[in-house]
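> call design_seq(struct)
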């Protein structure tokens, strides 16, 4: 029991303790000081969350995720145009093979 008593330190408001950032005795009850400190922390957290969300939205808009400026023209340019180009080159290749000099060997 004595060992436990030696390891516990009791701190009072009038003693120097970094938890209580009052600086001097003002007569304000400790629960009010704690409430005010909590309000300051909550305000800073809200500001931090708002800043983080704004940065995240800016980053997603830069990457054009989640809609943004995504429309049919962009979809057609990025998806359909390469497919159409590949199909056109494949079509040219097939017509060149069918109409080419090797066609007479096949009996057509």
């Amino acid at each position: 029991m004595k060992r436990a008593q030696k390891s516990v330190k009791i701190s009072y408001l009038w003693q120097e303790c970094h938890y209580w950032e009052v600086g001097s005795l003002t007569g304000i009850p400790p629960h009010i000081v704690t409430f005010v400190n909590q309000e300051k922390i909550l305000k800073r957290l809200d500001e931090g969350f708002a800043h983080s969300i704004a940065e995240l939205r800016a980053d997603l808009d830069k990457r054009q995720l989640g809609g943004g400026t995504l429309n049919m023209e962009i979809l057609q340019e990025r998806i359909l145009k390469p497919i159409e180009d590949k199909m056109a080159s494949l079509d040219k290749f097939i017509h060149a093979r069918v109409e080419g000099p090797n066609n007479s060997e096949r009996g057509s």
